[in-house]
Design brief:
Layout: E1 8-10, H1 20-30, E2 34-38, H2 56-68, E3 71-80, H3 86-99, E4 103-108, H4 113-128, E5 133-137, H5 147-157, E6 160-164, H6 165-170, H7 175-180, E7 185-190, H8 201-210, H9 222-227, E8 235-237, H10 242-248, H11 250-275
Parallel strand pairs: 1-2, 1-8, 2-3, 3-4, 4-5, 5-6, 6-7, 7-8
């Protein structure tokens, strides 16, 4: 089981080829408390997972939750682009409610701030009926690429923020900036990265989707970011590495991510204690 005081989850992107039902069992076997489930395909290349009410995979996933006690905390992923996407997010909310999820991860490519605010606000209203809160992710190569802007949108719409340590690093955010938005942050996604920032948008996308590093084995000040937020905040390990998973397998990768996260959280506890 998880030996930290904070709940620790395993994000779908860490093992994208494992179905949500498989991910629940992997999480249970390696000591995680919850998973994030991808209920909407992000790219045409990735496996689609049908978790709509009545689907066989939903039944399998709910059985895995019942068997293991590992729950589904968050669902993903929709990119608000300014087009009519309400039907898409309503379908996601249907799946999320069936899974017992608490949050829905959203990002934004729409640079029209009034329109984005309106769409995000409507999503928040819709999601309230499902018992789910949309969480806006700051992504280095999308239109919402600062904690300050995400905080403004959270204040305006009632959404929350999900902060990802890779993207925090790539926008050169500091732990103090994260602490300043703590009231809006619903979850921190934990991963590490090499020091050198990719020079192109394509490089940033590739790194984000498939070339991250085990927590504690890169150059990101992870413990400082963790310590900047409340000790009870859920943490989700989102660290994909396609090449490593192909070499060592999903179970071993989940074990390495868990061990790395535990070490980061131990350092964060030390930082919190020193600050008292």
């Amino acid at each position: 089981m998880n030996t930290t005081t904070q709940e620790l989850g395993l994000a779908q992107l860490s093992l994208l080829d494992s179905s949500p039902a498989e991910l629940v069992h992997l999480a249970a076997d390696t000591g995680f408390d919850f998973i994030g489930a991808r209920v909407r395909q992000v790219t045409p290349e990735e496996k689609p997972y049908n978790l709509q009410p009545g689907s066989p995979l939903l039944a399998q996933t709910l059985q895995a939750v019942k068997d293991t006690g590992v729950r589904v905390h968050d669902i993903e992923f929709i990119l608000l682009d300014g087009s009519g996407q309400r039907e898409a997010w309503l379908q996601m909310l249907d799946a999320g409610q069936a899974l017992g999820a608490k949050t829905l991860t959203v990002a934004a490519s729409d640079a029209n701030l009034p329109r984005l605010t309106e769409n995000l606000g409507r999503m928040v209203e819709d999601a309230r009926n499902f018992g789910i809160v949309p969480t806006l992710e700051v992504i280095s190569y999308q239109s919402v690429n600062s904690l300050e802007l995400a905080g403004q949108l959270a204040q305006a719409t009632g959404c929350k923020i999900v902060a990802d340590t890779l993207h925090l690093s790539r926008i050169q955010a500091q732990p103090g900036q994260l602490a300043a938005q703590a009231e809006h942050v619903a979850m921190l996604q934990l991963c590490d990265a090499v020091a050198q920032r990719p020079q192109t948008r394509e490089g940033l996308v590739l790194e984000s989707r498939s070339e991250r590093v085990v927590p504690g084995q890169g150059a990101v000040p992870l413990a400082e970011f963790v310590a900047a937020l409340p000790a009870e905040l859920p943490l989700s390990v989102e660290s994909p590495s396609d090449s490593t998973v192909a070499r060592i397998g999903a179970r071993r990768w989940a074990e390495e991510l868990k061990a790395g996260a535990e070490q980061v959280l131990a350092r964060a506890r030390t930082l919190r204690a020193a600050a008292v």
